[in-house]
Amino acid sequence: MKDMFSKTLLWAFLIMVTLYCLFPFAWMLSTSLKTEAEAFQIPPTWIPLEPTAFSYIGIWVRKNFGTYFFNSTVISLSTALLSTFFGALAGYGFSRFLFKGRRFLIGFFLATQMLPGVLLVGPYFKILSKVGLYDTRTGLIIAFLTICLPFSTWMMKGFIDKVPVALDQSAMVDGCTRMGVFFKIVLPVVAPGMVATILFGFLLAWGDLLWALCLTSSEPMITVTLGIARTVGEFRIIWPMLMAGSLVGGMPAIILYIFLQRLLVQGLTAGAVKA
After folding, report:
1. N or C, which end of the chain has less CB nearby within 10 Å?
2. How far is the C-alpha of 171 from the C-alpha of 181, rounded, in Å?
């Protein structure tokens, strides 16, 4: 009886937490299907009286959402893949080689994560302007790499630490080079960890607004988050279109989690961060 009561309380708590987490998405979906007049109606309607997909059509017709998605996809994928690859190389070096200043350097990598992005965006603006990379996808990718790379290095080092050194030695005894060991032995073993790191880099770049706002200026370079933010006007906010854009903009992250959740959980539970 006591166990049943505990399970009932646990399930009730989990259901409440689930409803709490899903309510914003349900409200966004409901608002996105309303007319603009109904979105401002008081008291609000929970279910649209006359559901319409006008807002979803409007974000593609009235806004260049195709361009926004292309920019965000290129920038986010490039950031995720490059930061994970170079983070894996650096993590392998920190994991397998002992050199002077090793602990200080990897500690410095971690310390850079304590700096808020708002302090760095100004210097990046000046640097990218000087080298001709302001308002370019390449400039944004470089900027995001500097944010993701230290964390990716720490993540990958933790995963690589779990790979026995004996595997490296056995492969080299058989004639494999150090880079061959990295690509043929280590990377396949830490694949779940790489998925977790790639997801981190992708979501960081995909959801960013501040850096995209400060490091781009022209319409062809706008990302999804910046495009959604620009639906908020000075004197008017079209709430159904804003909610529709937010839902559509969040779909790539949701889809990635759905298809990669098993590898993500394996990666997050496989590594341990230690110097």
Report:
1. N
2. 6
Q: How far does CA 124 lie from the centroid of its chain?
A: 20
Q: If you average pLDDT over residues 82-90, what whole number do you get?
A: 92
Q: What is the pTM of this model?
A: 0.81
63 and 245 Cβ atoms separated by less than 8 Å: yes
Cβ neighbours, 10 Å, residue 90: 20
Report which DSSP code applies to 272: -
Q: Using one digit for the tens of pLDDT, what is the confidence trace for 134-179?
A: 989 999 999 999 888 888 888 888 888 888 888 888 888 888 888 8
What is the three-class DSSP state of 239?
helix
Q: Percent of the chain at pLDDT above 70?
A: 93
CA distances from 215 to 20, 80, 135, 204, 233 (A): 36, 19, 6, 16, 21
Structure tokens at 230: 């620009």
Say if CB 232 and CB 242 are below 8 A apart: yes
Residue range 178-196: mean pLDDT, rounded: 86
pLDDT of residue 270: 54
CATH ID of 59-270, from 1.10.10.60, 1.20.1070.10, 1.10.3720.10, 2.60.120.330: 1.10.3720.10
Average pLDDT over residues 33-53: 82
Read off the tokens for 103. 């602990």
H helix runs in the chain, sequence order: 2-32, 36-39, 54-61, 65-96, 102-111, 117-130, 137-161, 165-173, 178-181, 187-189, 191-206, 210-215, 224-229, 239-270
Are 119 and 199 in contact by the 8 Å Cβ rule? The answer is no
